[in-house]
Amino acid sequence: MSATLVRSPAKMKELMAGTPVSPRKDQTMQFKIHDSGQNMDRDVRDFVETRVLSKLSRTRRRIRSIDVYIEDVNGPRGGADHLIRVVAGLNPTGQIIVRQLDLSPGAGIGLAAERTVRAVRRELGRRRTNRLRGAQKATRDSNRPAAAL
Prior knowledge:
It is built from four helices and four strands.
């Protein structure tokens, strides 16, 4: 059996055509950008999508949806006036909200994406720890002798 390095999504779909895929890995993450009437051009939208998805690539299976809200809070007055909000919906339930205020939307997107990654990993770690603690407690309780009546 030989290994093939595939770089294009079209080629990957072609190679995987006859391969059964589990439903969990087949789920796709929904991604939306909301710009509050700023009429962002396609290049900026592509930049935002690329930046956020590349940062979240390792935790992509655990994320159901990503909504990025970009808002100019001060208008033409200047200052730290771009509010970036990233809302990540986790599988199976849960939501993480990260807010970042910055001078430019590009810098704010990068920082918000990094903070979102840290928050998602922290939450997944908590879930894993709680799951392990629950399993340890169940094992500990099953080893105790029954109380005499």
